[in-house]
Amino acid sequence: MIKDTYFTVGPSQLYPTVKDHIYTALEEDIPSISHRGDRFAHIYESTIASLKKLMNIPESFKIYFMGSATEGMERIIQNTIGVSSTHFVNGAFSSKFYQTAVDYGKKPEKIEVPFGSGFDKSLLKVKKGTECICITQCETSTGTAFPIEDVYSLKEQNPAALTAIDIVSSAPYVHLDFKYIDLAFFSVQKGFGLPAGLGVLLVSPAAFAKAESLSQKGMLLGSYHSFLSFEKYNLKRQTPETPNSLDIYLLGKICEDMLARGISLIRKETDEKAALIYNFFDHHKIYKPFVSDKKFRAATTITIDTPGRSAQIVSSLQKKGFIIGRGYGAFKDDKIRIANFPSHSVSDVQSLLRSFPK
Ligand SMILES: *Cc1c(COP(=O)(O)O)cnc(C)c1O
Fold it and tell me: CA 269, 144, 84 angle in degrees (round to 5)?
């Protein structure tokens, strides 16, 4: 059987070495070991060390394992916001982050532009006193990127505010200077090419201190996954609950593999593949990239306008062994989405574009 190649934005194509690591994990009984024992503590420690190395995350940052990335939004709202956060909203995921703050009874501000647009410099202003600036670095629902320099400039203008960024579909491609970042989160079924069921939250010392101070004021930060509960177990190299040990193990292995391959090469190839895809559609007679302004085009999740033709394109490509996604939500029939993750090779992308229906 010829295997399909998944260009879906998540879950997506598994990283090429995942299969072998799963076999090894089964041989070594990883799914059966106790999450309160030494072997698990060793895996936990090793995965965190590899991830920190791969993404250049400072030693002082804490890394917590959750069930998903969606959980990350909720934990950030619960643990770091007393009254107000500011959200840059231009798609379904940034909107969900904002809505989570509303659901928790906070008073969030929203800076909103239409789906598919980015935020011009003139919009990069937040109200004084906002506690946390929440940004979706790669808005997967529309293929829009929030340039990382703009995150840095927001932090420079608002040093007292925390910065929280959703890097679910851009990690580990996105290259961050954590001097300007307090909270970041992702899940593993996108850029890391792993089976779903694990979220990762990065917490700066300032963000952790904020949670402590809110707790001292008597605020409830959640239960088993409050930052304080996470940290109590983190000190023992454990998680509060029985975790997805298999995925934690696999994440460590994939980080090592990516380090061996070289993260700068992975980033360079991602840029090359993105250029191939955008160039193809910039010159296409009918289909065009949804995000017209090049500076806001995401490299890792690419949305193309295909008015009325999504279903046809998806099924034609499927017959040739390529699985791509339709537009998000209301865009289902009029757009397609193509993932460009480290698990997709340059030649995979070339074959996909060659097979694209005329
Ligand atoms: C996929 C995605 C999420 C949600 O991730 P889950 O693992 O499904 O919780 C959040 N934000 C962005 C930008 C995403 O692409």
Answer: 125
- Supply the pTM of this predicted model: 0.98
Parallel/antiparallel/unpaired status of strands 199-203 and 132-136 = unpaired
Residue-averaged pLDDT of the chain: 97
Check: CB of residue 73 under 8 Å from CB of residue 166: yes
* Separation of CA 6 and ligand 1 centre (Å): 17
Measured distance CA(209)–CA(215) in Å, rounded: 10
Task: Report the alpha-carbon distance of residue 64 to residue 227 in Å, rounded.
Answer: 8
Contact 173, 270 (CB under 8 A): yes
Strand ranges (E), 150-285? 162-166, 183-187, 199-203
26 CA distance to ligand 1 centroid (A)?
28
Looking from the CA of residue 72, the nearest atom of ligand 1 is 9
Distance from residue 73's CA to the centre of ligand 1 (Å): 10
Residue nearest to atom 14 of ligand 1 (CA): 168
Ligand 1 atom nearest to CA at 93: 11
Q: pLDDT tens, 115-159?
A: 999 999 999 999 999 999 999 999 999 999 999 999 999 999 999
Reported residue count of the chain is 358
Token pair of 104 as six digits? 């928790």
C-alpha 189/C-alpha 67 separation (Å) is 12
Question: Which two structure tokens, joined as six digits, stand for 244?
Answer: 């997805």
How many Å separate Cα 84 from the centre of its chain? 23
Burial class (CB in 10 A: 0-12, 13-18, 19+), 229: middle
